[in-house]
Amino acid sequence: MATISVEGKDIEVDEEGYLVTLADWVPEVAKVMSEIDEIELTDEHWDILNFLREYYEEYQIAPAVRVLTKAVAKKLGKDKGNSKYLYQLFPYGPGKQACKFAGLPKPTGCV
Amino acid sequence: MDGEGQTKKFMFVNRKVPYGTVYALESLEVVLISAAFDQDVSLAFVDDGVYQLKNGQSTDGIGMKNFSPTYKALGDYDINKLYVEKESLEERGLSLDDLMELTYEDEDDDWAEKTSIILVSREELAEVMDQQDVLISS
Predict the structure, then answer these.
(1) Which of A60, A68, A75 to mutate to test the interface with B (most CBs of B within 10 A)?
(2) pTM of the model
(3) What is the topology classification, in CATH, of domain B9-137?
(4) For an engineered disulfide with B57, which of A54, A80, A108, B68 has Cβ 3.0 to 4.6 Å away?
């Protein structure tokens, strides 16, 4: 099993880099994962990551990209709830990459 | 293949209690995946399947994830026809008040919040089933 090193602790991730145990997540996990993907996390990234964590808390699933886009538009405004903006933040896909940073499983229906 | 790009009516029929087997959870996951294909998707809850929508579920002590909150996300996925069979509820001493509030926002009606639950008799459900192109039972 692969691991990433977060605050001196080894945390298990699967072959695609998602956390094996969701409860292992701390904000530092997102930082370490983003460094691996060579992305510098800004407040704009955190808006989406926090949104995803709240969505998971409420519904127990990682939303599909289409659902994420719509929900972000509703909560944070249309200038953020569109796929161009979200892909700029998360070039590997707002569903896959943002969910990974947020410590969520891969979105249901994402292959 | 006939009807490429055509919308078909899919109904997922849920007959089992939510925990103890994986049927309910697996069916729900398939439903969420199916939403990506822009089909006309509905769900039916009959027999013990009505327990899947019971409010106040707790899985403390059985070591399974309480996935009931996920039904509340169905509206976000544009799945807003959840048929619940009246007789199945009554046979179990349940009524609509015992079920979770499941809603969607109607795009064609200024995003008004509406209930996704449609209470139907056994006879009415049979008619709705008859109109489907595909029935998937679990």
Answers:
(1) A60
(2) 0.88
(3) Hypothetical Protein Ychn; Chain: A, (3.40.1260)
(4) B68
